[in-house]
Every structure is written in C-alpha cells, then in structure tokens.
C-alpha cells in the first residue's frame, strides 16, 4: 500500500471535534512500516488523542531520532512541523525547540534503540530537566531497520528470531524515568488502544516531562515464541494497574463506580484524570512505592501497564529558568538589543 | 659575566611566576591596570595549567608605549614567586634583566645568575610581622609585592589606590587594609632598595579611549546584541568563560523590567552533543541560539553539524581554540580547528567561518554571526582562540548603531502563506541558493514540512532519487557562494614599498604580525598583507594571491590549515604559499614571524631593499 498516495476525499459524515476537524485532519502520510507494525497503532492512538482533545494540529511539534519509530511522525499530524533528527538525539533537539517557543506542544517519538542505547544520556537528561513534552518510546526490544539485533530493553534470556539468547540485563525505561524525576510516567501496549489513548491525552495535558513506554511488537523481527516483546507474550503478561478517563473541565459523571475503586487527580492545566483502580495496592502518586512495585512484578515476568506515576503540579524547565511568558522566538529587536547607550556604559566600565 | 642592566622606559616585559590558587591573579591584574591608567598600553597574558591549586601559573605583562599588543618573547623582569619553577624562570630572563624574589629565606648563590640584577624583598617576613591570619598572610603578600614593584618601576601609587577603591566599591572595608599592604611593600622598597630601576613606567597618553576586555566576554556581549536567546553549552577550557559571561551580561541587560523574568534561556548541557542539539532545536524553531566550545567539543558535534548543514538550520558556534586533545596543553593557545570547522561532519559539507582579531571584533562578529546564520540558514563558526578569548586585550571601544535591525533572513509569514505564496522549503526562488523557511506553528494548513537530512526534494518531500539529491547539493554550493559576499571582507594593506611578496594571516596573529612587518621593514623587507576575516573566501583573497609571486601564510598550527583551505578552495598552487607556522602553545610573536620570514627569504635569495641601497 505504501506506494499509493492517500485519497484526498473522505466520507462527508466523518465526525468533527470542537474545532470542526475530522480524524483526517490529524493524519499524515501513508506509513511505510511493515503491515501489522505496533508503531502504526501508536500513530493511530496519537491521532485519536489529539482529535479527542481538539488540539490544533499545527500547534504541535513532532520530533524524533532515527529508526522505525522515528519515521512515524511523518505518518500523523500532517499540518504539524516535524523533525527527524539524528540517532538518539531527539531529546536535545526537542529541548532546544521547547526553549525557543514554550507555547507549542512537543511530542517526542523515539524507540528503544534510539532512547535506551545511543540516546540513553539524552533521554535521562531531558527527563531530569523537566522539559514540558510527551516523550513516547515505541519499545519493541529490537533493531528493526538494521534487521533484528537485540536492543538494550530486550530481557535477559529472551530469544532473537534466529534463536540467539540475550545475555545482557534489560534497561527498564519506566524505572529509569521514576528515578530521573519525570512527572508523568506510564506504560502501555500498542495492542491496547483503549488504555493507550487516554494516557496520551493525559500526558499531552501534563505540563512537565511526561514519558510513555509503549510496548510495540516488531512484527518482522520480534514477534516469535521466546520473545518477551511479542503480541502473545505481552497480552499474556500485561498487568494493568489502572485505566484512565481524561476530563477537561468538569464533566458530569455518567457511570457509577464501586466506592474506593476510582480516584480523581486534577492536573495543573485544570484537566481531571479519573483513575479506575485495577490493582488495589497501587498508588501512582508514590514514586518510591511505584519503583518497588515495578521491580517486583518485572522479576515475575509481568509487564505492568497503566498510569504508573503522576505529579499533578510539576515544575517545568521554563519555570526553572524563569523565562518570560512570551516565546523567545517572538521577542523583537527592542526586547533583545540593549542599544548604543548600554554599550557606552559598558565601555566606560572597561577603562 | 656582569652585563649593563637594561634601561627601558615604557617598553619592557614583566613576568609573574606564581602558584595556581595563591590569589596572585588579582594583584597581577592591578599591576597591569595601573600602568594602563598611566596612559601606557599593556598586553597581559595568562599562562596557566589544567589545575585548581598548586601548579605553576604565569602572568606576563608586556608594557609598550608604542602600542604593540602581541606577545614579544623574552622577559626583562621576572617576579619569581614560585620555587617550583625557579630555575626555568631565572634562566628565561634577558641578559641585563631583573629578578625580583622573596628573600625571607636565603637562596644558594648558584641559584642566581651574574648577568642579571637581583632584587630581594623579604615578603614573607614583612607579612608575618604584620599579619597573623594565614589567609591574610598569603593574600596580602601579593599586594605587598605590588607595592614594592610600584616603587621599583615608578608606577604611581595613586593609580593603584584608585583601582583598589573601584574594585572594592561594594566591600569597602577591604579598601584600607589593601592600601596599607600596598604601602607596606612600597615603603620597604623605598627604604631598602635603589629605586627606580632601569625599567620604568612614565605617564603617557597612548591609551586614548580604548577599552580593556577579554574576547570571551566580548563575544558573549556580541551574542546579546545579536539577539541570541538560547545558549546551550558544556564546560570546557578555554570557552567556559564565554557562556558564563553571557549569563552575567543577560542578567544585566536581558531581564524584563516589569516581570523581572528572563528574556533568555541558558542550559548547561550534559555534553557537547546535547549542547549543539539544543542549539539546532532552538534554531529550527526560530530562536537565535549558540554554543561555546573548543576543539574536542567541535569533534563531538560533527554529526549534528552535518544535519544542520543539510537540514539548513541556523546555529552559531563560538570555538575558542586550544591545543590538542585531553588535558594539559589544552590550556595553551592555537589556531588548530580551522579545517575541522570548515568541513565539519560526514558527507559533503562546507561551513561559514569568522576570524576575529581582538575582543572588539569578537563583539562585532559575535553579533553578526547570528544575522549570517539566519540569512544563510546554516551553522556559523566564530573562531577565536585562548590568546584573545581568555586574556584582556586593549582594543577600540565597542560600538552599536541603534538604526541596525536584526536580519532574520527568509522566513515566510502566516500572511504570505495565507495569500497563497508558493512555499517550497528547499526551493531556490531568488537564485542565491537560499530557500524560505517557516517556523513551526505558523499556519493551520500551509507551510508545514518534515525536516530531515538529505533525502528530500525542493518541497521537502521524501525522496531517495539521485537527481533530486544532486539538485539539492548544487543549490547548497550556490548558497555557499552567496556566503562569500556576506562574510566580513578581508583587509588588505600595501607594504612600505612596492613588492611581489605578500602575507596572509588571521585571528589573534594580528598584533604580532603588525609588529613583525615593522621589524621586517626596518630590514628593508616589504610585504603586502591581507588579513582574512571569513570563510568562504571573498574573491579578494585569490586576487591578492594572484598579484604576488610568493605569499606567506602565517598561522598558529602545525599543518598550515588555512593554507590548505586556500589551495583547495581557491585552486592555488601550494608552492606559491609559504607556510609560517607557530604551534608550541604560546602565542605567536613578532620576533618569530620576522625571523621565519627573513630566513625563508634568504633561502630564496631575495635581497632586502635596504641592503641593495647601502
């Protein structure tokens, strides 16, 4: 299909959101990834989430590194600027872009090779700086474009398509993000759109460093028995600790829930996250307990998903730098150039 | 063998040999400043180790009423405060020169020379008698030697006192003790030594309205005036003080007067890769951004620099050049990154370089670099070096024309897009190779594009077709050609007599070159010169070479990097360009240049005009 252009025409009865835009207005080019790739489901979830939130597509900046996942920003949000940068360095480019204009929404798309290997340092530092962004790692445990080498998130003992067993310890991006101070941390599965879409919405609304580790099976190189990143394995071992509804402003509660099973958290932007507890003992506002829970479950081979940590009132990089509200890229000559008089004063002090 | 002591007024070199971390820097700077305040030009240079405390450090002050600001070579007076380097320091004094030392502990006679004048001042003893606090003993020792030197060299104590009052304006209880220490040393010298010496400072009027500052600070101020709002950097000597100066300039000049919030963002990144990544991200998004680094940082940034070249993203890099990798020599000066910057990255790349000669040009080019980067949509390198970056240099006052506007280059606006102007991100509409760009978020449905390296057509659509690639590469060459006319023009100066010989030089070599030309002229050797200020080379450069039989290319690196760039980029026969290379980590001197050029000419059997005449 990838050699065909997308048809421009669409069904006249496609549903419009608050901006009068349909799904089609949030789509991008036709994907060139393999049929059935988990990444395409994530692109679809991003489109769905942005449409649900009625975001103006052009007010989003999409940035990526190199790899299959990093190609995807071309396949969603066509009216948005995108930047396919260099391998493992999306976080720094995104950080710089964010410094230049704090008003846009920043979506960083990366993979496990891009973020857990070559770009582990930049992944870490962008989270600890609290860059206001959604950072998604489309995690398949394998290098796809270079044909099937293990990545750093592959579990020890998991097997490659050729039957080789991985002898190195895996990097758990979620545990790292917890330690590094990310203020919104979730894990999801490309095969579970119901869980993923509200997580993306909540992460976009979050005014700080939001990270989603999305297990996204590689249909070509990592979807076989012996892999711990295959559709079958993740379905069998997925332990969702909660599900999420995102409400902007105050919406009427339409369903009744058993007492003690829901919890509402109001984010700084005014949105409300209603969490439906699936695991009684999981508290997503306790950073250390979350880390402990994840490690214990991982040791049992479980893949814990859901909203894993949330600080509803984060301080982002701009707050730390105390920058003006006006985006720096809009400041004019008068605001930037101190002028000839100031130069005279400076000269006088240098004699 | 005793030699007649040197007799020189307003023309000598004093070198201070100190221990790093002993607090000598401030006293040494007062020494240089007080001479400046007497109207006599000085050029000080720090020679320091990669160390915080304990290793040797030197501060060399050249006093020159004639105004020579380059390093001279040789030492007329050594202030030997470091026993570690005593032997070498004493050996470096010119015959007839002076040795100033702390005579509290007797030194064996074989530690001196009989062809120099030895001046012992019991600094430790004076200090220990007056002060009981160990820190005071150390700090005031520096001021005490300054006081003694003021008597020996006839530096006006009033000038030093005024400087002390200015320095401690906000901590005024330090003024009186410092002035007391100054006079402690001065009075001791006047009472016990024959003052003044043969070396003397005499009030003159040779400084004028010139200012005294470091190239790094001036570059940072240039970045402020050039409209930079984002700085991302990683600490590396000798460039760290540039980023730190940007921070302090911004705190004074770039805070919103009403909200008190910052009109700038400075990030100390985790490494140089992240620094340049942030600069590129900010540049892509329409903010003016820069990094400050040195050679190793440039090496690390290579991949990103290629991306910025191909994706056509403005970025400014200040490269304060230093010698070699690792630690140690890197605190010494060189011009050794010319090729690494000119061709930075994989693939076919060529970058824009600027070569400031002094802090004033650091300021001017520092500001101009941002206009060039936006106009050309490409990385621009400002190549300074440790010599001008980290030393205070006397230069013409900074100037700014309030009528000047920042040139943001070709940015298509929402209005233009709305009006239906064709937008092709890589479409050369004006024939200068420079396409239009849009900032992210400009228009709801027009003008967005997907930024990537080379695999795209004129409308930024993905393609791996050969002809589209070639088309793009040729446009990038056209753009590079446009840059020739935009970078600062080279400055030509005719020799004192008609000549077929020329010399090309750049950057911090300037003052030594100027002085060398006078020395050569005195020998009857005339050279036309050209100071190159930018790359790609302006057409004036090959024209200058064509007009001369032989052209010396004077630079501070081993491989003749600018010479190599001239031969490759201007298609010049290498035999025509004679390299004059200085690269031991010390700043190039006039003595070196004049000697090397003289030697080369003798080798070619060129007879100086004066010898013909006489």
**Straight-line N-to-C gap of chain B:** 35 Å
| Overall number of strands of chain B | 23
Helix/strand-derived category of chain B reads: alpha/beta
Q: What's the count of strands of chain A? A: 13
Poorly predicted parts of chain B:
none
Give the % helix of chain B: 25-40%
CATH hierarchy class name of the largest domain in chain B = Alpha Beta
Number of helices of chain A: 12
Shape of chain B: globular
So, the CATH homologous superfamily of chain A? Answer: Thiamin diphosphate (ThDP)-binding fold, Pyr/PP domains
Q: How many domains in all of chain A?
A: 1
Could you give the topology of this structure?
The complex is a heterodimer of chains A (351) and B (614).
Chain A: H1 38-52, E1 60-64, H2 68-71, E2 81-84, H3 90-100, E3 105-111, H4 112-118, H5 120-129, E4 133-139, E5 142-143, E6 149-150, H6 173-180, E7 184-189, H7 193-205, E8 209-215, H8 231-237, E9 238-240, E10 242-247, E11 262-266, E12 272-277, H9 287-299, E13 303-310, H10 317-321, H11 333-336, H12 340-348
Chain B: E1 8-9, E2 11-19, H1 24-37, E3 42-47, E4 56-64, E5 75-80, H2 86-91, E6 93-102, E7 117-121, H3 123-130, H4 134-153, H5 157-167, H6 175-192, E8 199-200, E9 211-214, H7 215-225, E10 230-233, H8 240-253, E11 265-268, H9 272-284, E12 289-293, H10 295-300, H11 302-311, E13 315-321, H12 338-342, E14 352-354, H13 359-376, E15 379-385, H14 386-389, E16 392-395, H15 414-418, E17 450-451, H16 466-486, E18 491-493, E19 501-505, H17 510-522, E20 528-531, E21 534-535, H18 540-546, E22 550-555, H19 561-570, E23 577-581, H20 590-603, H21 609-613
Parallel strand pairs in B: 1-8, 2-5, 5-6, 6-7, 10-11, 10-12, 12-13, 13-15, 14-15, 19-20, 19-22, 22-23
Antiparallel strand pairs in B: 2-4, 3-4, 9-16, 14-21, 18-20
């Amino acid at each position: 299909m990838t050699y065909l252009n997308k048809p421009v025409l669409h069904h006249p009865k496609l549903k419009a959101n608050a901006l009068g835009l349909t799904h089609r207005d949030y789509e991008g080019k036709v994907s060139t990834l393999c049929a059935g790739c988990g990444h395409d489901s994530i692109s679809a979830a991003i489109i769905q989430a942005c449409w649900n939130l009625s975001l103006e597509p052009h007010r989003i900046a999409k940035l990526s590194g190199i790899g299959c996942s990093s190609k995807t920003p071309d396949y969603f949000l066509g009216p948005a600027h995108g930047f396919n940068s260099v391998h493992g360095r999306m976080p720094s480019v995104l950080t710089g872009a964010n410094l230049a204009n704090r008003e846009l929404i920043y979506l960083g798309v990366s993979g496990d090779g891009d973020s857990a290997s070559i770009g582990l340092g930049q992944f870490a530092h962008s989270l600890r700086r609290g860059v206001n962004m959604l950072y998604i790692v489309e995690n398949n445990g394998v290098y796809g474009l270079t044909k099937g080498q293990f990545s750093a998130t592959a579990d020890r003992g998991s097997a490659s398509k050729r039957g080789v067993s991985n002898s190195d310890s895996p990097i758990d991006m979620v545990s790292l993000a917890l330690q590094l101070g990310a203020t919104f941390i979730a894990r999801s599965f490309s095969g579970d759109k119901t869980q993923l879409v509200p997580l993306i919405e909540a992460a976009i609304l979050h005014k700080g460093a939001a990270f989603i580790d999305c297990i996204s099976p590689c249909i070509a190189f990592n979807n076989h028995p012996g892999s711990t990143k295959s559709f079958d394995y993740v379905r069998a071992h997925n332990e969702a600790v909660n599900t999420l509804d995102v409400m902007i402003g105050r919406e009427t509660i339409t369903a009744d829930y058993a007492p003690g099973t829901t919890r509402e958290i109001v984010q700084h932007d005014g949105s409300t996250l209603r969490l439906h507890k699936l695991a009684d003992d999981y508290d997503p506002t306790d950073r250390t307990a979350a880390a402990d829970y994840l490690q214990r479950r991982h040791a049992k081979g479980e893949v814990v998903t859901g909203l894993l940590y949330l600080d509803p009132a984060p301080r982002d990089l701009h707050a730390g730098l105390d920058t003006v509200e006006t985006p720096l890229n809009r400041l004019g000559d008068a605001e930037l150039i101190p002028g000839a008089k100031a130069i005279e004063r400076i000269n006088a002090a240098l004699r | 063998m005793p030699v007649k002591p040197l007799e020189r007024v307003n023309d000598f070199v004093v070198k201070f040999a100190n221990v790093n971390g002993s607090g000598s820097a401030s006293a040494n700077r007062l020494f240089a400043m007080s001479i400046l305040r007497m109207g006599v030009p000085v050029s000080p240079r720090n020679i320091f180790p990669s160390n915080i405390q304990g290793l040797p450090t030197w501060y060399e002050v050249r006093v020159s009423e004639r105004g020579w600001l380059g390093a001279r070579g040789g030492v007329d007076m050594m202030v030997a405060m470091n026993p570690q380097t005593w032997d070498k320091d004493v050996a470096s004094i010119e015959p007839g020169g002076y040795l100033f030392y702390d005579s509290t502990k007797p030194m064996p006679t074989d530690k001196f020379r009989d062809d120099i004048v030895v001046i012992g001042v019991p600094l430790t003893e004076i200090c220990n008698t007056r002060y009981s606090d160990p820190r005071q003993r150390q700090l005031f020792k520096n001021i005490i030697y300054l006081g003694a030197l003021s008597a020996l060299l006839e530096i006006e104590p009033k000038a030093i006192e005024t400087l002390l009052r200015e320095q401690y304006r906000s901590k005024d209880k330090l003024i009186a003790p410092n002035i007391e220490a100054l006079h402690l040393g001065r009075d001791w010298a006047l009472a016990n030594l024959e003052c003044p010496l043969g070396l003397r400072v005499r009030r003159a009027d040779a400084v004028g309205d010139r200012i005294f500052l470091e190239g790094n600070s001036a570059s940072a101020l240039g970045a402020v005036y050039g409209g930079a709002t984002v700085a991302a950097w990683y600490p590396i000597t000798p460039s760290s003080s540039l980023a730190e100066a940007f921070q302090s300039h911004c705190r004074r000049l770039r805070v919103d007067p009403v909200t008190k919030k910052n009109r700038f963002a400075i990030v100390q990144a985790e490494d140089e890769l992240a620094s340049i990544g942030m600069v590129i991200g900010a540049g892509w998004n329409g903010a003016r951004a820069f990094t400050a680094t040195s050679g190793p940082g440039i090496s690390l940034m290579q991949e990103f620099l290629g991306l910025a070249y191909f994706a056509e993203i403005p970025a400014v890099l200040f490269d304060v050049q230093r010698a070699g990798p690792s630690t140690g020599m890197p605190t010494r000066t060189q011009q050794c990154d010319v090729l690494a910057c000119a061709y930075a990255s994989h693939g076919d790349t060529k970058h824009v370089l600027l070569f400031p000669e002094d802090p004033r040009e650091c300021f001017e080019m520092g500001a101009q670099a941002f206009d060039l980067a936006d106009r050309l949509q490409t990385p621009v390198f400002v190549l300074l070096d440790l010599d001008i970056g980290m030393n205070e240099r006397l230069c013409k006052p900074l100037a700014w024309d309030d009528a000047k506007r920042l040139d943001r280059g070709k940015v298509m606006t929402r209005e233009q897009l709305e009006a239906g102007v064709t937008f092709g991100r890589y479409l050369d509409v004006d024939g200068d190779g420079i396409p239009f760009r849009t900032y992210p978020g400009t228009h709801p449905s027009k003008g967005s594009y997907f930024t990537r390296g080379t695999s795209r057509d004129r409308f930024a659509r993905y393609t791996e077709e050969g002809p589209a690639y070639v088309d793009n590469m040729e446009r990038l060459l056209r753009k590079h050609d446009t840059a020739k006319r935009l970078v600062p023009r080279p400055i030509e100066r005719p020799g004192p007599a008609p000549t077929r010989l020329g010399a090309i030089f750049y950057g911090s070599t300037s003052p030594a070159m100027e002085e060398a030309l006078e020395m050569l002229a005195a020998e009857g050797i005339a050279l036309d010169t050209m100071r190159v200020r930018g790359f790609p080379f302006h057409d004036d450069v090959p024209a200058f070479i064509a007009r001369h039989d032989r052209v010396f290319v004077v630079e501070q690196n081993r491989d003749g990097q600018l010479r190599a760039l001239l031969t490759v980029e201007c298609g010049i026969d290498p035999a025509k360009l004679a390299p004059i290379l200085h690269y031991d980590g010390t700043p190039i001197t006039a003595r070196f240049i004049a000697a090397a050029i003289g030697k080369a000419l003798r080798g070619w059997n060129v007879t100086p005009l004066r010898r013909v005449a006489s």
